[in-house]
Predict the structure.
Amino acid sequence: MPRPSWDQYFIDITHLVATRSTCMRRHVGALLVKNRNILATGYNGTPSGIRHCEETGCLRERLQVPSGERHELCRGLHAEQNAIIQAARHGINIDGSTLYCTTMPCIICTKMLINAGISRIVFEGGYSDELAQEMVAESGIECCRFDRSVNGGELV
């Protein structure tokens, strides 16, 4: 088996991180990486010490909120938010780092990533949020999709 590229290595780790997700609708994992070192990880789910949606039920399901809309109607945080928060709690400077994520960040996470000084985003799955894509492009953050179907895994 060939040795994976750094991008494939870190994308693969996001999938392991996502297995910790407590969300009933989508499992997302994120890593913040600088100089090939993992600074922080995050997965989507409720804040620490708060009951998981498996216990309370999914508010978004109950209200029939479509994916990508009304993010405030959720008990959980996104994986990207949790990665930023973990870095902040531990005093880790993430300016100039790369975010690896199983999905393209939403607009709320995108705004946080821009202000946190993230220089690059590598994601695997799409997420239909045109405003997020526009703001990433305007911010100058390099944004690439990792595609496993191209030569076993390449950026496109």
Summary: The two ends are 22 Å apart (CA to CA). The helical segments are 6-18, 53-56, 59-62, 79-89, 107-116, 130-139. The mean pLDDT is 93. The beta strands are 29-34, 37-43, 98-103, 120-125, 142-147, 154-155.
